């Protein structure tokens, strides 16, 4: 019985879609009275901006920012001041066939490090057994330092 009622409602909706009823007179009158909206005038372009004045005198050196005004020549660190507390004592071959650099950091005990290994704020980039040197990258200075074996090479 419910199925017959649903089929009847469906047939009625199809009939309304296929043969729509004629619009009422009131709807035609209201549609004729409605006018299309007028478009507003286009906005006025803003005036051209003047170049900014030099504000370098207002900028102060801030130790908490990465980007900023370049430091004066007399306040920048020289090459001699940029040292790291890492010492290279020896370069030894390891059991797996690779080389290990025997490094001491800040006077602590000597430990072996392989290429690419990170320790504290440093990374051992390259070991050169022929020249008895290693390249150590420092995160503090954002620079690679070359260390030589202590006591000759």
Walkthrough of the structure:
With 153 residues, the chain is α+β, with helices and mostly antiparallel strands. Among the domains are: 2-32; 86-148, SH3 type barrels (Roll), CATH 2.30.30. It has helices at 2-18, 25-33; strands spanning 86-93, 99-105, 111-113, 118-119, 122-128, 133-138, 143-148. The longest helix is centred in the first third of the chain and has 17 residues, at 2-18. The termini are far apart. The model has no long low-confidence stretch (mean pLDDT 83).
Architecture (CATH level 2) name of one domain: Roll
Read across the widest sheet, the strand sequence of neighbours is: 4-5-6-7
Number of helices: 2
Tell me the β content: 25-35%
CATH class of one domain: Mainly Beta
Helix content: 10-25%
State the end-to-end distance: 103 Å
Low-confidence stretches: none
Q: Specify the overall morphology.
A: elongated
User: What fold name stands as the CATH topology of one domain?
Assistant: SH3 type barrels
Taking all Cα atoms into account, the compactness measure Rg is 40 Å
* Strands, total number: 7
* Sheet with most strands: 4 strands, antiparallel
Order of helices and strands: HHEEEEEEE
Determine the mean pLDDT: 83
Structural class, from helix and strand content?
Answer: alpha+beta
Write the topology of this structure.
Layout: H1 2-18, H2 25-33, E1 86-93, E2 99-105, E3 111-113, E4 118-119, E5 122-128, E6 133-138, E7 143-148
Antiparallel strand pairs: 1-2, 2-3, 4-5, 5-6, 6-7
């Amino acid at each position: 019985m419910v199925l017959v009622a649903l089929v009847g409602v469906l047939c009625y909706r199809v009939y309304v879609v296929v043969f729509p009823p004629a619009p009422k007179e009131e709807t035609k009158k209201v549609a004729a009275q409605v006018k299309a909206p007028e478009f507003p005038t286009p906005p006025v372009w803003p005036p051209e901006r003047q170049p900014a004045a030099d504000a370098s005198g207002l900028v102060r050196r801030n130790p908490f920012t990465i980007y900023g005004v370049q430091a004066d020549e007399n306040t920048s660190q020289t090459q001699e001041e940029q040292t790291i507390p890492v010492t290279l004592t020896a370069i030894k071959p390891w059991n797996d066939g690779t080389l290990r650099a025997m490094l001491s950091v800040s006077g602590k005990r000597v430990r072996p490090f392989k290429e690419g290994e990170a320790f504290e704020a440093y990374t051992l980039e390259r070991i050169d057994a022929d020249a008895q040197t290693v390249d150590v990258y420092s995160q503090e200075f954002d620079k690679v330092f070359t260390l030589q074996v202590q006591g000759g090479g």
